[in-house]
Amino acid sequence: MTQYNGMKRGYRCLNKVSIMKTIKTVLVSFNEIAEGEYIPEKMQPGVIYYAPHFKVSNHLCLCGCGHPAPLPIGPGHWNLTAGEKGVTLTPSIQQRFACKSHYIITEGKANFV
Ligand SMILES: [Zn+2]
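Above: query sequence and zinc ion SMILES. Below: predicted holo structure tokens.
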């Protein structure tokens, strides 16, 4: 009986961890900026902009706070790929400003952790 309770506690613990892993998921779209053009000053929420000629990506923080989140793209920085299923950015993005959001964008979905 004691052993059974112990196991039950163990499972509950595992469930809690998996629930905490992803707080929420936000769908994102992708906008690749044409050569010689700039990422717009007024960005749309939920859009990942990428200007390959400047090796920079930018978006409004996906928590909804609206803070711009510029990211350098390239070796030693973030890696950006845009495939059929959507945009992927690695590693994860941890905002340094007030909201402290932390999310990873995989195939057009931002998973908050
Ligand atoms: Zn935010």
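DSSP finds one helix and nine strands in the chain.
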